[in-house]
Amino acid sequence: MDRKEMRIVDTGEFYRPNSGVLLPIRVNSDDMDLSNKEERGSIEEINFFSNRTSFRQAEKAGEVPESSGRNPNLESDREGSKLIDLNAGLHLMANSENGQSLTNRWSTLDQNNRNEMAELQAELNRLNNENQQLRGELDRMVKNYSALHMQFVSAMEQKNQQASNKKEMIDDKNGVRSPESIQEGNKIVEQQFLDLHPSIEETTQSENNAEEVVSSKKRKPVDESPERERASQTWEPSINGNNNNKMLKQGMMKGVEETSAMNPCRKARVSVRARSEAPMISDGCQWRKYGQKMAKGNPCPRAYYRCTMAVGCPVRKQVQRCAEDRTILVTTYEGNHNHPLPPAATAMASTTSAAASMLLSGPTTSTDSLHSPQFFPFLPCQSSMASLSASAPFPTVTLDLTQNPNPLQFARPAPLSSPFALPLPTGPHIYNQTAYGPQKLPILPSGLAPVQFGVPNQPSLTDTVSAATAAITADPNFTAALVAAITSIMGTPKNNNGNNNNNNSTNNITTPNNNNNHSNINTNTNNTSIIGRPSSPQLPQSCTTFSTN
DNA sequence: CGCATTTGACCCGCGC
DNA sequence: GCGCGGGTCAAATGCG
Ligand SMILES: [Zn+2]
After folding, report:
1. Which UniProt keywords apply (predicted)?
2. How far is ligand 1, taken at its centre, from the CA of residue A189, in Å?
């Protein structure tokens, strides 16, 4: 098929949706036959080279009634015919008079160029229109999402306030009035706005304070064993009123903190692997170490921290070095902060919250949803992976930031000052990243903070976490969102001084049986590898120890 | 002296 | 029932 003909046909297709707009044809008419510019559609075609193709013109005029709407198929055919006519006419011109052949050739070339230009311009216009349409669509979706989210937040707020009132009543009945019960309502509201996605514990828990989430699964809601001195000391005032004195002895905060319910949401974890020489990455929060254990299979001890930025904050984290690469620090976050966070800490908090929501918010966010390669279209070429494990009891999202291909992605817009800005991705940025591969500028949501991971003045994990958070929280289905997150992770500088400039970030799907192949996305059951990355270093499974139990 | 860290003991779930 | 391992507690200790 002739190249030109192909081109014209394509332009015809471009404009077919916009009935009546026949820019390419009109442009040709400008060049060849200006007399009928005002006519539209096939009228112009008919007049195309009218002096030489009257036969065809008459033929086509008879074929196609002009009154009816444009028929795409017919349009295509006619345009094809028109091009044949065009070529024939040019040929005749070139051969007709030798003296003018050169001039005619030049004019032909000029016309061709102009045609091409016109076509390109037409395509440009078309793309602009399409872009505007898509943008409008996106804006609409974002608006809808925001509206829904705000509704959800307000609903949760109401629910929390109701629960708070209930708790106050209980406390009053027991003769103990917990200050937290008064404060928690506000706290939770803050947290919800802060985290963008209120986590499941807040939705399912009848009592509102986030501290309840803290208590581990082993803490049973009813103290059925009196001989357990510690258990009776540390907890459950609202269910077992006899413990109130003990709780006072232990301190109100602890009592509230340990008040718990077996909330599955507590299990949701976000594990971040990052290279850092420091014993602990700085994520903007204040942590207090409350324990250290030697983990099995890892000579490096595992440290346990809890957030001390606010009394009773349920957030905890575990820090452990990777057994095989001591420079890799694995930090696992758990829970949601119940207090406002500084900008530096917002990213991580949002990430953990979003990850918890992601992992626990139903089948669409489970690992199953990630089995489809369409969720990671970029992975084979960009070597970036999402790690999700929705498996019970500890669904875990693992962000592997130890391998980064792009050391020069430090430039990014200055973060906004407000620590409470929603990390909601705005505009098409996230889709830009998603669709068009690695973008060097991180799509940070505006409220996210400057970097505080690792050594000062270093670019930090915060970028990655922010982007991941934004991505996760932006889309309840976590499709494009996940893609965007991972894509943005690729653009995040690693957090250490490091010597690891040439690797890609990877996220991993971790399996319940601790089969952490960092090159694969595995299912919970059969460890089916969806997307492999043979080139990535195989990291020891002990590096992500929290996905299993 | 107050706060944070250390560290041994304890709790609990799970597998055998 | 017992042992193992993960997680937490809290007294002891360290530090500014
Ligand atoms: Zn906190």
Report:
1. Coiled coil, DNA-binding, Nucleus, Transcription, Transcription regulation
2. 14
ipTM of the complex: 0.96
Buried residues in A508-522 as b, exposed as e (16+ CB within 10 A): bbbbbebebbbbbbb
Q: Are strands A328-334 and A387-389 parallel, antiparallel or unpaired?
A: unpaired
Report percent pLDDT > 90 for chain A: 3
What is the 3 state secondary structure string of A492-537?
CCCCCCCCCCCCCCEEEECCCCCCCCCCCECCCCCCCCCCCCCCCC
Pick from A124-128, A177-181, A439-443: least confident: A439-443
Residue A321 lies in a domain: yes
Q: How far apart are CA A478 and CA A451, in angstroms?
A: 25
Specify the DSSP class assigned to residue A538: P
Cα A260 to Cα A257: distance, rounded to the nearest angstrom: 7
Instruction: Show the domain range for A346.
Output: 269-359+382-401
| CA/C1' separation A207–B4 (Å) | 31
Number of Cβ atoms within 10 Å of the Cβ of A253: 17
Chain B: positions less than 7 Å from a protein CB are 4-14
Instruction: Report the predicted TM-score, pTM, of the whole model to 2 decimal places.
Output: 0.42
Q: Report the domain count for chain A.
A: 2
Ligand 1 center from residue A310 Cα (angstroms)? 6
Region of residue A478 (left: phi > 0; alpha: psi -120 to 50; beta: else): left
